[in-house]
């Protein structure tokens, strides 16, 4: 027993040494007691090694040090590579780990011989109580001081009907509600500390340790201190740095005192069979931190709001489907005696032939699905929906700030924390006007060159995108001429109805090509923009993310929406008329819309890009980490007889990274643009977005709990700059939908004909097709544009409002063109004013912070001040009582001396 105690004391002495050194020193410690150990000593040595072996066997899923008591808060891994600056890297690691110990952190190193691959060292880090309380005060972390007496919100009427989507209360609300205050180590007795080991949750612990790691120095170069784990990771001094997951995601914790929150999240959140269930948001926040938690709150709220828009959009689509057969326009186009007798002008010069209007019969019927009376209603509805979405999100965010103790977070901490890279690059210092402390400073003149490079790159990226769009337009024009030539034959002059018209075939192929180009350009631009933003040396993480967000969003906005803007607002608008067409580069004739309008082509473009992006994104997000993790585990597990420990398992997982959440937000905001900007042309867009988001929530949850290392917890009180982007897109969506209804849809021309030009009272739209097509004299075709084969026709028709060839203003715009144009402009002005008036009215009526949340915030602030005041008062009384008791203990008054040196009078 005495020898075992001696070994334990030696283990504590060499706790920070590698296992090889530990075994060597313990063996030499035993041998130093005598040249020939006695049988008892040999037995004790065997017993010691056996106990360590059993402890290792039991620690496969352990998240503790070898003593089974100290929790692992962070893990660093590295490999000794003799070929690449091994001595320099080893010196950096020694200096870094020494400085970590000086801050109070405790380290334990796992030798490479005990790892699966036989070459990776693992440095396990534990933050003791004194370190936690010190940095909890530095970071302003709020901790519970008293159980909250605020009443929980009552369940709404008929809430029992939502029983199937509810989670158990222990999962949804893992902890009671408390009044909280910023932690102070001098007021520890004020806080509800039942157990020091569990007082700080694991997410708070790893956040504190990462804060220390990101500011710990590891050397000096050219008089400038080199600091931060990120620089060590970039130089491959360490391979990885990560906090541990709570345990295996497929089984609960075997220790009664330890709750495996990862397993609970996997069972109740990250399962596709639970797609209809609510999310355990408080548990997500406790495990991953507020920044990731608020993303899932936003994604869940956005999905809930999409449900309403999807139902209304589906109703509009069903209305179009039911009224498709009764549509007067498509009926006339399909009628052999009307559309079958209308000879249309060629779709391209020389090679294309004339064609009959009824060949687009199926296309015109399909167009009515999205171009009907409900389109106007749905455009107005979505303008109101987006306003309600943003206003209710303000309330949800305000409630979340209160529930998660984030009310005063931004101004106190987020804007004041500097990036370690900024601190390392700055040579000058100045006094911060807010904190009145000396901090690194970089003059503006040093940043201007990088700002110039950044702006040039963004402009170049935009120019590249526009050039790619022009290239796709050229492809569409070339493909259109080729396909039209292929399709145009004698069959086109027969009553042959086909859905794949030249316009539709060109739209499908062009949309698919555009989707491929979008993916390729995104791949390159993402990496370039991230590098340039890093070179700008932003001061804080907030500035870094804002700068990167601006670059990426501008690029992706143009990348994803440019083709849709072209089809909606430019295609067929400036094409001219037969005999006087406009040409692109004097080579390709401008595209023209189908006689039923360009709305179907816009719908096709939007559908392919939106659905293609969502399907590709979900497949990529699900398969990429799965394949990479399988390959890394396959390469790592070369010694199957070794212990595959908890830290090794997490080391083989994918890295979520600081920008992992950024790309998730970017994907959601781009989808929001598809749902709002062009929704008048595709009422099913909210439905497809809803189905995607239901899958997206579970895919993201599955990734974070099973395929990624645990991210470092970080605080955030809102979705940041993305909220301003959403507001901008909401305002823009009102204008785009109004212009789509006016200029892309065929509703306004039909209404003008209905009220001003229709002569048939029983069938008001009778004759509309004939009225919307102008007449062109074939003899007026220039020689280089007329079809090669001469036909027995004297005239052909084209879509426009122009005078016939026998009119004195030959081929000039007629009066109906100006009536339709005026009606379109009036419609745009009226719709925008109505929608914006409703938006401002709703924004004024709906408060940003709910009344009950305001009352709770005031109540908590009042109670916090009262509790702290009572605590300080009681502490003062206790100190006075102690001094009084000390005075009373003395036998004589003369024995009591005042602080001034004199006797205290009785």
TrEMBL record:
<dbReference type="Pfam" id="PF04547">
    <property type="entry name" value="Anoctamin"/>
</dbReference>
<protein>
    <recommendedName>
        <fullName>Anoctamin</fullName>
    </recommendedName>
</protein>
<keyword id="KW-1003">Cell membrane</keyword>
<feature type="transmembrane region" description="Helical">
    <location>
        <begin position="817"/>
        <end position="842"/>
    </location>
</feature>
<dbReference type="InterPro" id="IPR049452">
    <property type="entry name" value="Anoctamin_TM"/>
</dbReference>
<feature type="transmembrane region" description="Helical">
    <location>
        <begin position="504"/>
        <end position="525"/>
    </location>
</feature>
<dbReference type="Pfam" id="PF16178">
    <property type="entry name" value="Anoct_dimer"/>
</dbReference>
<keyword id="KW-0812">Transmembrane</keyword>
<feature type="transmembrane region" description="Helical">
    <location>
        <begin position="548"/>
        <end position="569"/>
    </location>
</feature>
<dbReference type="GO" id="GO:0031982">
    <property type="term" value="C:vesicle"/>
</dbReference>
<keyword id="KW-0325">Glycoprotein</keyword>
<dbReference type="GO" id="GO:0046983">
    <property type="term" value="F:protein dimerization activity"/>
</dbReference>
<keyword id="KW-1133">Transmembrane helix</keyword>
<feature type="transmembrane region" description="Helical">
    <location>
        <begin position="725"/>
        <end position="745"/>
    </location>
</feature>
<feature type="transmembrane region" description="Helical">
    <location>
        <begin position="669"/>
        <end position="690"/>
    </location>
</feature>
<feature type="region of interest" description="Disordered">
    <location>
        <begin position="1"/>
        <end position="37"/>
    </location>
</feature>
<feature type="domain" description="Anoctamin transmembrane">
    <location>
        <begin position="284"/>
        <end position="860"/>
    </location>
</feature>
<dbReference type="GO" id="GO:0005229">
    <property type="term" value="F:intracellularly calcium-gated chloride channel activity"/>
</dbReference>
<keyword id="KW-0472">Membrane</keyword>
<dbReference type="GO" id="GO:0005886">
    <property type="term" value="C:plasma membrane"/>
</dbReference>
<dbReference type="InterPro" id="IPR032394">
    <property type="entry name" value="Anoct_dimer"/>
</dbReference>
<feature type="transmembrane region" description="Helical">
    <location>
        <begin position="375"/>
        <end position="393"/>
    </location>
</feature>
<feature type="transmembrane region" description="Helical">
    <location>
        <begin position="294"/>
        <end position="322"/>
    </location>
</feature>
<dbReference type="GO" id="GO:0001778">
    <property type="term" value="P:plasma membrane repair"/>
</dbReference>
<feature type="domain" description="Anoctamin dimerisation">
    <location>
        <begin position="64"/>
        <end position="281"/>
    </location>
</feature>
<comment type="similarity">
    <text>Belongs to the anoctamin family.</text>
</comment>
<dbReference type="InterPro" id="IPR007632">
    <property type="entry name" value="Anoctamin"/>
</dbReference>
<feature type="transmembrane region" description="Helical">
    <location>
        <begin position="450"/>
        <end position="475"/>
    </location>
</feature>
<feature type="compositionally biased region" description="Basic and acidic residues">
    <location>
        <begin position="1"/>
        <end position="14"/>
    </location>
</feature>
């Amino acid at each position: 027993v005495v020898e075992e105690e001696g070994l334990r004391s030696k283990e504590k002495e060499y706790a920070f040494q590698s296992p090889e050194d530990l075994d060597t020193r313990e063996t030499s410690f035993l041998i130093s007691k005598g040249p020939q150990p006695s049988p008892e000593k040999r037995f004790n040595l065997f017993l010691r090694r056996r106990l360590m072996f059993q402890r290792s066997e039991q620690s496969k899923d352990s998240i503790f040090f070898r003593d089974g008591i100290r929790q692992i808060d962070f893990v660093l891994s590295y490999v000794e590579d003799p070929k690449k600056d091994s001595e320099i890297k080893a010196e950096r690691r020694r200096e870094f780990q020494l400085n970590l110990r000086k801050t109070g952190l405790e380290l334990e190193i796992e030798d490479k011989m005990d790892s699966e691959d036989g070459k990776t060292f693992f440095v396990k880090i534990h933050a003791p109580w004194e370190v936690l309380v010190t940095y909890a005060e530095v970071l302003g972390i709020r901790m519970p001081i008293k159980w909250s007496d605020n009443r929980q919100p009552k369940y709404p009427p008929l809430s029992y009907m939502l029983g199937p989507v509810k989670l158990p209360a222990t999962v949804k609300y893992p902890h009671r509600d408390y009044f909280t205050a910023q932690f102070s180590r001098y007021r520890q007795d004020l806080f509800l500390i039942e157990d020091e080991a569990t007082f700080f949750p694991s997410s708070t612990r790893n956040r504190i340790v990462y804060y220390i790691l990101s500011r710990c120095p590891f050397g000096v170069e050219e008089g400038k201190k080199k600091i931060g784990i990120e620089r060590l990771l970039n130089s491959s001094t360490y391979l990885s740095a990560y906090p541990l997951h709570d345990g295996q995601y497929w089984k609960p914790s075997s220790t009664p005192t330890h709750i495996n929150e990862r397993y609970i999240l996997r069972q109740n959140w990250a399962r596709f069979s639970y797609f209809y269930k609510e999310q355990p948001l408080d548990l997500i926040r406790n495990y991953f931190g507020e920044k990731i938690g608020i993303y899932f709150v936003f994604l869940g709220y956005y999905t809930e709001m999409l449900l309403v828009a999807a139902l209304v959009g589906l109703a509009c689509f069903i209305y179009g489907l039911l009224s498709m057969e009764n549509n007067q326009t498509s009926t006339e186009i399909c009628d052999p005696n009307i559309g079958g007798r209308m000879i249309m002008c060629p779709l391209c010069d020389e090679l294309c032939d004339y064609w009959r209007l009824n060949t687009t019969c199926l296309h015109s019927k399909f167009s009515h699905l999205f171009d009907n009376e409900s389109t106007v209603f749905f455009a107005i509805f979505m303008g109101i929906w987006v306003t309600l979405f943003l206003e209710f999100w303000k309330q949800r965010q305000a409630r979340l700030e209160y529930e998660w103790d984030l009310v005063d977070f931004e101004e106190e901490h987020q804007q004041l924390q500097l990036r370690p890279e900024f601190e390392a690059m700055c040579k000058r210092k100045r006094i911060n006007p807010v904190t009145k402390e000396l901090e690194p400073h970089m003059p503006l003149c040093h940043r201007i060159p990088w700002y110039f490079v950044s702006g040039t790159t963004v402009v170049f990226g935009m120019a590249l995108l526009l050039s790619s769009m022009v290239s796709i337009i050229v492809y569409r024009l070339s493909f259109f001429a080729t396909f039209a030539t292929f399709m145009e034959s004698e069959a086109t002059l027969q009553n042959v109805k086909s859905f794949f018209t030249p316009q539709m075939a060109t739209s499908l192929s062009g949309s698919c090509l555009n989707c491929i180009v979008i993916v390729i350009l995104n791949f390159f631009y993402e990496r370039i923009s991230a590098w340039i933003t890093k070179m700008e040396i932003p001061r804080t993480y907030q500035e870094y993310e804002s700068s990167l967000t601006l670059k990426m969003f501008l690029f992706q906005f143009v990348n994803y929406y440019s083709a849709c803007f072209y089809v909606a607002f430019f295609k067929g608008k400036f094409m001219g008329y037969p005999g006087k067409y406009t040409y692109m580069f004097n080579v390709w004739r401008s595209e023209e819309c189908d006689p039923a309008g360009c709305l179907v082509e816009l719908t096709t473009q939007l559908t392919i890009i939106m659905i293609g992006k969502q399907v590709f994104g979900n497949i990529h997000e699900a398969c990429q980490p799965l394949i990479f993790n399988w390959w890394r585990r396959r390469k790592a597990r070369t010694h199957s007889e070794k212990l595959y420990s908890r830290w090794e398992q997490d080391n083989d997982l994918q890295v979520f990274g600081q920008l992992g959440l950024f790309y998730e937000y970017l994907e959601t905001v781009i989808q929001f643009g598809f749902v709002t900007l062009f929704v008048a042309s595709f009422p099913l867009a909210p439905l497809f977005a809803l189905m995607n988001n239901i899958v997206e929530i579970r895919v993201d949850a599955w990734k974070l709990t099973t395929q990624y290392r645990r991210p470092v917890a970080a605080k955030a009180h809102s979705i940041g700059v993305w909220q301003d982007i959403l507001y901008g897109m909401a305002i823009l969506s009102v204008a785009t939908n109004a212009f789509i209804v006016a200029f892309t849809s065929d509703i306004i021309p039909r209404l003008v004909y209905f009220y001003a030009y229709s002569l048939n009272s029983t069938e008001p739209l009778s004759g509309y097709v004939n009225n919307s097509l102008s007449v062109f004299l074939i003899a007026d075709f220039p020689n280089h544009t007329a079809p090669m084969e001469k036909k027995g026709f004297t005239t052909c028709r084209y879509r426009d409002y122009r005078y016939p060839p026998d009119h004195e203003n030959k081929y000039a715009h007629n009066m109906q063109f100006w009536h339709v144009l005026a009606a379109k402009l009036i419609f745009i002005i009226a719709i925008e004013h109505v929608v914006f008036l409703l938006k401002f009215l709703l924004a004024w009526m709906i408060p940003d912070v709910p009344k009950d949340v305001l009352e709770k915030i005031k109540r908590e602030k009042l109670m916090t001040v009262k509790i702290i005041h009572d605590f300080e008062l009681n502490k003062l009384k206790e100190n006075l009582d102690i001094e009084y008791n000390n005075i009373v203990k003395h036998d004589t008054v003369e024995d009591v001396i005042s602080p001034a040196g004199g006797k205290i009078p009785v």
